[in-house]
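Lecture 7 notes: from sequence to structure.
We start with the chain below.
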Amino acid sequence: MNRCGNCHVFVSENLASCPLCHQKMRKEQDREERWYPDYETPRLKKMQRLSYRICLFLSIALCLISGFVNLLTYEQARHKLWFLYVVAAVLYLWLLIGNTILSASRKGAKLILQTVGISLLLYIIDANSGYHRWSLNWAIPFLLTASILSMMTAFFSRKKMWNEYIGYAIAMTAMGFLPVLLFVCKVTKILWPSAVCALSAVLSLIAMFVFSSKQLKKDLKHRFHY
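Predicted structure tokens for the same chain:
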């Protein structure tokens, strides 16, 4: 198959010149090579799978070794299960790298996953260090407040993508009422951090309703059937 260097079209080998510009034809030698995938692609995927399996094995091995050492030194560690710190840190790293940094998910989903992951990590650390409930009274309410503000910032800074962010924004604001629910159930004892979190959730819902477009309101009505 010949290729015209001027028109960039392929014509029959029987023609000595291009039928469009009448320029002399030249043979396209690498045309067949572009029809097939690069040889490095399957090799790269194989290396990625191998790297994934190595990281998975090292993570499991680290958790098991730390648990084994914790079991052998249980009395010296004053009967504390410190290996849970290692397990929680490893799980969070998998969440951070696999579901946030390397993931192609939307930013709203990443923010919710990060909020849930960090909250669980803080709770595990608190529960295993005497359970003083600092995670539930202080850390998690402030974390949820910051996440709600971050979600609202992303929501209002990209008006063209409101339909994409609205579901994540509503889910995040709903999570903002959880600290107050824990206070009502007497799980926590300090009210004002939970109240600040709930207030930010309420203000976010009001802002979404006031500043949203008519089309977005119609979409919400169709989505929630009211």
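Points to note: The chain has nine helices and three strands. The first helix runs from residue 31 to 34.
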